[in-house]
Amino acid sequence: MLKLKNVKSCFTPNSIQEAIDILKKSDGKAVIVGGGLDITVFPNPIIEQFIFLNKLGLTYIREDDENIKIGATSTITDIAKAPVMQNYLKSKVKIALTEIASEPLRNQITMGGSIARHHFYSDIIPALYASRAKIMISDGELVEEFFVDDFYHNDLKALMETHIVVGVHLNKYGDSFQFGTKRFVRNATDIALLNMAMLVQIEEDIIKDVSISVGSRPGPAYRFEKGEAFLRGKKLTKALAEDFESFTKSNVDVAKDMRLSKEYRQHIAGIYAKEILLDFIGGAR
Ligand SMILES: Cc1cc2nc3c(=O)[nH]c(=O)nc-3n(C[C@H](O)[C@H](O)[C@H](O)COP(=O)(O)OP(=O)(O)OC[C@H]3O[C@@H](n4cnc5c(N)ncnc54)[C@H](O)[C@@H]3O)c2cc1C
Questions:
Q1: For residue 51, which atom of ligand 1 is closest to its CA?
Q2: pLDDT of 84
Q3: 250 with 238: CB under 8 angstroms?
């Protein structure tokens, strides 16, 4: 925070309404603070006010009959350690979370900050797409619920000028569902050069339902619907996983950037698509 030399006030509002009022009145000079990572790594000299959400009771992970509910100020560590996450989707979400970045960063990265910042390399957003998460936002009066797919069709910058992310709801899935993620990094603490998350419903070896998301491609994470259509209704076998590798290589929407060529991203995406499916065959045994 020391890099932000023009900051004059720190607010700890007692309600979402109060937070939104400060945000709206600030004329773009206030910023909501999640874990504060982006705000400090990319200091914006315009910022004069911090709005901390600590008093809003948004650090929680709880469940009801249908959902696991995660508050916006919960960190990756909070979520990975929460009792309700230990067996969620056969522990695969918890494992995926503990593979992101490094422990000190996981202790700071919040769910709300990750959603609002929408980094194209985020490992959280593909997991939210694949698990068909619902994002909850509030303008202080109403809480609105968006499927993650719909949420990112909004003008995010404009939306975040009048709303805050208050949480995420993860659907509870039955035993027929399997979840997997992969992230391609040169070393464990790098941001991913490509990442993938997949949720598959398998009944009597048939893929009944599937959602796949690819991120850090290098564009924003997206639903790989062509891949989903390819798999839906097919019998999950080793041969299918191998076919899916070549299908993914040819059909995944990736591009080049200074870090990786398009061809290499296609290659990695194909391998990951196959490996995640093979893990599901192993996991189903
Ligand atoms: C060195 C480094 C490596 C990283 N590696 C990875 C990685 O490999 N994978 C990965 O997924 N992430 C990674 N991250 C995290 C990622 O880059 C962002 O820093 C993180 O997602 C932002 O989280 P935060 O809680 O710190 O948000 P902040 O920095 O506090 O906020 C980010 C933005 O979101 C806004 N905001 C925060 N909370 C809310 C809210 N509740 N409602 C509305 N707006 C809000 C803020 O105003 C700000 O504009 C890394 C970060 C660092 C610094």
A1: 47
A2: 97
A3: no
CA of residue 151 to ligand 1 center, whole Å: 17
Query: Hey, what are 206's tokens?
Result: 């048939």
The torsion region of residue 82 among left (phi > 0), alpha (psi -120 to 50) and beta comes to beta
Q: How confident is the model at residue 283, as a pLDDT?
A: 54
**Residue-level pLDDT at 285:** 40
Q: Which residues line ligand 1 (CB under 6 A)?
A: 31-39, 41, 72, 100-101, 105, 108-110, 112-114, 116-117, 119, 122-124, 160, 164-165, 191-192
The highest-level CATH class for domain 177-284 is alpha beta
Yes or no: domain 61-171 corresponds to CATH 3.30.465.10:
yes
Separation of 122 CA from ligand 1 center, angstroms? Answer: 9
Look up the pTM and report it.
0.96
Residue of the nearest CA to atom 34 in ligand 1? 113
Helix (H, G, I), strand (E, B) or coil at 73: coil
Q: How far away, in angstroms, is 227 Cα from ligand 1 center?
A: 29
Spell out the domain ranges in the chain: 9-56, 61-171, 177-284
**Please, what are the averages of pLDDT over each run of 10 residues along the chain (285 residues)?**
82 98 96 95 93 98 97 98 97 97 96 98 98 98 97 96 98 97 91 98 97 98 98 97 98 97 98 97 62
Structure tokens at 285: 């045994």
For Cα atoms 180, 185, 191, give the angle at the middle one, nearest 5 degrees: 95
